[in-house]
């Protein structure tokens, strides 16, 4: 795992331990499948990074770092990982999967709108994103002829 932002204990508390065991048993043989949990939180962390990279310097601190992952980032990771686990763990159309994804989207929207901050996270540099210039106006007008007597607008239209 490159940058875990949450723990099994946090997801167990969110989803409940018995349900987590069922969701982590993707092949439904009665036991948790190896690496499914690690895959879920890695995918969730990657998604959080991608969704916030234009606002903050990513990756954020891991849960094992000091200071650790900002709480709001752990919350986002929990919601996305839970939704992902419901989708791959046998309940893709469940209300739980939709509810966790809706909570992820709601919290992400608050951060993007500036209604919630990520304490301790460095904001992305102003020149680190994609720059675009959009302008609107009239089509340029050309008048006259060049030294050979050819209209300056010839070939433009």
Determine the N-to-C terminus distance: 57 Å
Secondary structural class = mainly alpha
Rg computed from alpha carbons, rounded to a whole number of angstroms: 25 Å
Count of individual beta strands:
0
What does the model show?
43% of the residues lie in helices and 0% in strands. It has five helices and no strands. Helix 1 packs across helix 2, helix 3 crosses helix 4 and helix 4 packs antiparallel against helix 5. The longest helix has 18 residues. The model has no long low-confidence stretch (mean pLDDT 85).
Core attributes:
single chain; 5 helices; mainly alpha; 157 residues
Helices, strands, pairings?
Blueprint: H1 8-15, H2 17-23, H3 36-52, H4 71-88, H5 95-112
Task: Give a short overview.
The chain has 157 residues and is mainly α.
């Amino acid at each position: 795992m490159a940058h875990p932002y949450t723990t099994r204990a946090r997801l167990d508390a969110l989803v409940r331990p018995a349900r987590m065991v069922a969701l982590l048993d993707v092949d439904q043989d009665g036991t948790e499948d190896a690496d499914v949990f690690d895959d879920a939180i890695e995918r969730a962390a990657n998604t959080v990074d991608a969704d916030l990279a234009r606002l903050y310097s990513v990756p954020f601190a891991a849960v094992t770092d000091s200071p650790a992952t900002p709480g709001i980032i752990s919350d986002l990771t929990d919601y996305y990982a839970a939704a992902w686990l419901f989708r791959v763990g046998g309940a893709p159309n469940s209300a739980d999967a939709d509810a966790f994804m809706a909570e992820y989207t709601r919290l992400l929207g608050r951060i993007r709108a500036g209604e919630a901050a990520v304490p301790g996270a460095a904001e992305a540099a102003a020149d680190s994103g994609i720059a675009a210039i959009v302008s609107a106006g009239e089509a340029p007008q050309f008048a006259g002829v060049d030294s050979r007597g050819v209209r300056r607008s010839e070939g433009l239209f």
